[in-house]
Each structure stands twice: as structure tokens, then as C-alpha cells.
What we know:
The radius of gyration is 30 Å and the shape is elongated. Strands 4-12-8-10 form a four-stranded antiparallel β-sheet, with helices on one face. By secondary structure, the protein is an alpha+beta fold. It contains ten helices and 28 strands. It is 32% helix and 23% strand. Among the domains are: 12-181, Alpha-Beta Complex (Adenine-n6-DNA-methyltransferase TaqI, Chain A, domain 2); 277-420, Adenine-n6-DNA-methyltransferase TaqI, Chain A, domain 2, CATH 3.90.220. Helix 4 packs antiparallel against helix 10 (423-466).
Amino acid sequence: MKKSEFKKYPKYKPSGVEWIGEIPEGWSVNRLKNCLESEQNGFWGEEEKGDKNDKVCIRVADFDRDFDKLNKTGNTTRNIKLQDYEKRKLKLGDLLIEKSGGGELTPVGRVGFFDWEEIEAVCANFIARLRIKDSHNSRFFFYLFKALYKNRLNLKSIKQTTGIQNLDTYDYFSELIATPQNGSEQTAIANYLDDKTAKIDSLIEKKKKLIELCKEERTAVINEAVTKGLNHDSHDLADEHDKKNHGNPLIKLNQGSDTKMKDSGIEWLGQIPQHWEVKKLKYVGNIVLGKMLTNDDKGGYYLKPYLRAANLQWFKVNVEDVKEMWFSEAELEKLRIEEFDLLVSEGGEVGRTCIWQKELEECFIQNSVHKITIEQNQDPLFFLYLMYYLGSIGLFESIVNRISIAHLTGEKIKDIPVWHPHKTEQHQIVQYIEAETKRIDGKIARTEKEIELLREYRTALISEVVTGKIKVC
């Protein structure tokens, strides 16, 4: 944000407050607590009973961290006795400050603005209701609290016990702030920021929708390629084509081509290229389920790292939290993960698949993971993308054994139908997918960076305006 693009006040004076610096001549310095009419801690109440005492109870989870609003969907209802409700009920313009919770990246102290009409609500016990004095504008103070948070003023007032951050509001509200003495100027500043942040939020929302469209495009690219193939004049690719065009993926899908198609024999799949084969997954690779978790050293066992379902993401392995357990020599031989093995989640998000690319020197599997060693005459990456297609259409969820928790058993996964061309064509399909997804992922990364910059601009604009560095009225 270039300050030269904005107007400044005619005259400034020292505020005497380090984080604020100079302030406009007509502004005054005060302690935050002197601008508050009241602070009232929240209340959790009792389970809802379906009577007139049932009220919406706003939690920290209802704070929209992107757009500074309170989410109106998925709210919690609690039963609040009349005397408790009368003491704690929320009204338009109340500020809600998070007093307990937080974390390393989002420390406690965020503030929400209550702007709901015709909804009877209180705030939960990890939140306090703040009312601003009538001589001030509560919306201005909402933005001022955002500036305090941005400048990390809350950190000095955080007390942490048993892993939970608690905000000492007596200490926090003793912080010095600067405000226009004229309430109408506070209102004008709040209105300006409402307008500007709404426009920024609209841009962010459009870019988030663009990212979702890009993700849909990426899924469509993968799904079309592994079910329809690429645009070849004939299925006889001949190794000669591979020699002449090695490293150059064919970038057209089979749609509208002369490639002959056939019924796959699978109702939900439809037609596939005529020269492709259909078989069960167990006929293209060796499938092994990992070992049940044990902490016992029985003697002659070896303590080794292992992967569980929580380590598996789509396409890649997360090795940030890899645990260890004891394996016998026979188990080490059977359950060792080799390069290019596919790893499939047996529980959790069943069917989630990634490929092992030697992220660790050695690693093994627990029984929430299936290991698939694809035959040498097949391309493991082709089957990785095919598994993604199966996941995207909900196949795994439709076949799992489900009592309370879903499980993709060895019998189920072995009988999953798969289809494929010759390895040469598999490789070309993989090249095409990787080229296209790289292009799409690049677009997503650029858009995410644009969103990050917009958020930074939004935060900086609020801080500059509410501390008087920019004149907006």
C-alpha cells in the first residue's frame, strides 16, 4: 500500500504511544477501558430443551476469519434461563472478544461484531461481550481492535496454562489508544472501512471461486484422461512413436477423435477405448495390508518407522509425524515400502491414495494402510491417477464395510475393477496429466498469492486508517 495514494491530515502531533506514532492534531489518547461501557463474560447454559429459553450461543468457531463476520449457519443452540439471558443478551453493535483458546498462528484476542437483527443470542463462556460508550462508534472500535491485534498488542496480556491461552482483559484494556474526539468522524471512518473492506472481500471471494473452478478442472483433466485416453489415430502406438516423441505428452483427449470405443462392462464407467483391458486390481499389483499396532518388543524385533492412514494425502505422503513400532524380520520383508509403491488408506477417508518416492530411507506400514506394488509392465502413476478417479466418483465409499467406522478391506480393494492401455500409452497419459495439472496448480498458486496480498492490504489499510495515518473524511 503506497501512502502517497492517500490523503493525510493537515497537522500531526506525537501520541506518546510507540505502536501508534504520530496522530492527527484533533485526536486524543486514552486507555481502551475508558471507552468501554461494560464487559460481560459469556455463558454456556444447558442443553437445548425446545422451549422459549432456547437461544443461539455464539462460539469462537462462529467467527469468520476471512471477512470479520459472524457465521449465521451451523450455530449452537443452548437453553439459557431468563435471568441469565437478560444479563448477557446481545444487541446490535456489541463486540465479542475471544478470551480463551487461540493458538500459535492465531493467538487469543480476536474480535467479532454482532450485527444480527431479530435473533436472540448470547456468547459462549470463552468469549466476553463488550459494549462501547454511546459517545463512540462501536464499528470504529471493531476496526481499532483489529489494528491492536495486527500490531500484536494482545500478546503482552496472554496468560497460558495447560496449553490454553487466556486473555487478561484487565491488562489488555489498559493499553493506550488514539481516537478522533468527534464521534461523527469515527462513524465516517467506520463507513469508509466498511465500503473498502467489502470491495476487497468481494475480490477475495471471486478469487476463491476461481480456485475452486481450477480444482474442478484438475479433477476433470485426470478423470477424462484415465477413462478416455489421449487422441491417437490408432491403438498401435508402436515403440517408434515413443522414440520420436519421448518426453512430449500428447495433449489432446480422445473426445471427438477416431479412436474406437467399447463398452467397459462396468455400468458406472461406460465406454473406454477399444484396445484397453479391464481387470481386477489384484491382477495388476500385489496388495498387502499393514501390521496391527503393537508396542511390545518380543525380542529379536526391530523398532522401525511406519505409516498410518493419517500420513496419506492424495498423491503424496506426509512424513512430518511418523511413529515407530516393533517388526519381526518376516514383517520387515513383507511390509517394507519400496519406491513407487501405491499406499491406500484402509480407514478414515477410505481409498485416499499416494505414491511412495523414498521420502524416508526406510519405512513400513500399519494396518490402516494397504500397499500396492504395481507390476513392472504397468506404470504406477497411471494407477495412482485412476485411484483418484475412483475416489472422486465415490466408489470407495460405496463398497466399504461400515459399522461405525468405514474400512476398505483387503477383499474389497483386490476386487476393485481397473482398466488400462499398454504401458507406453499409460506413460503418455501420465505425462499429459502432469503437464496439465502443473499448469493448473501454477494458476492456483498465483491466485492464492493474490488473495494473500489482498488480505495483507486489507489489514494494513484498516491499521493505517484507524490510527490516523490516512484521512478519509
